[in-house]
Amino acid sequence: MKITSLELIPVFATREMGKSGPSDPEKSISHHVILFVHTDEGITGLGEMSDINFDPTPDTIEKLGARLSSVLVGKNPLELNAIQVELYQQTWEHQVTCGVDIALHDLIGKALDVPVYQLLGGKVRDRIAFAYPIKPCKVPADVDANLDRIDWIQDLGHPTIRYYFGVDLSLDEKFLSELRKRWGDKVEINALDASGRFEVEEAIDIIRRFSQFEPNLFESPLKGRYDRPMEDWVAVREAVDTPISEHLSEYEVAARYAAHHAVDVFNIGPGYIGITATEKVFGLVEVFGLQALLGSTVEMSIGTAGRAHLAAALPNIHYPCYPAGPVVYDEQIVKERVRYESGHLIVPDGPGLGVEIDEDRLRAQRLD
Q1: Residue 43 to residues 110, 138, 251, 303: CA-CA distances in angstroms?
Q2: Model confidence over 282-306: pLDDT tens digits?
């Protein structure tokens, strides 16, 4: 079997969240690139470059397709390791290598007539607990908007959230206090994510202040993040009782944090490195006796399916994970969305990813 051609189709998806904040009536729009990897045996692999941070103009997409074709066309997709070695010799925009890796796994799974999780050693779980992302409160109206959002996801049967905080601590406190007053422990706060806002002593004080709301984790508390001395991370971790988490995917950075036990929990996002490399970082975390969860960049159903198969095969997931895109987005481009049930992402069955493109929806979401 040989790869004969690639198709890259940029699409948009509308988030249920406001563009500038939770109460903004104008909705946020994300861009994605759907990847089709065609072969001489008529099998096509589906991939998704999710929530991209580059402008998918026709010229950009054409150049990206040409670069990827120079690596992939003519290759046997079953020789995945060799392809990845060549692919990683170049520098790519965020999400590109992940989208390719998902497509190749989907292609191999279809060729062998097995689900992707079987390629990763078999599944250890059928469903993955997930946390729904909630934007920070920036203006007073955002408090009520976010409380309404909590009500909505509770009605859907999803009890767990991840809240981005630190823009306005008084509004954060008002929102979280009202959340606990209305729902008590029926709402699980998996993480309060500061997105790298605080200095060391400030972070320690704020973590202690917000621990009353009983989050499972505090994520990304320190300014400068990966450029901070490891001693700063250790100082925060040792000063507080709630576990500290950081987004760690790149091998070199992850190894440094692990060696210093700088954080308690690794938030490992496949969007930066792909399925295969993510497995290796989870293995690193396991070797050092730390904990991990699977991160997200808010994917549509193809990207979410790839992450679901990966999470199904990972033995060391310790907290709810973050792939929530099919709940976040109003539109989809597959015939059936990846399913969610009672706060869990359900692992699709294959072959491959177990999702199928809806051509009409794809055309409707395509960017001109």
Answers
A1: 7, 48, 32, 19
A2: 999 999 999 999 999 999 999 999 9
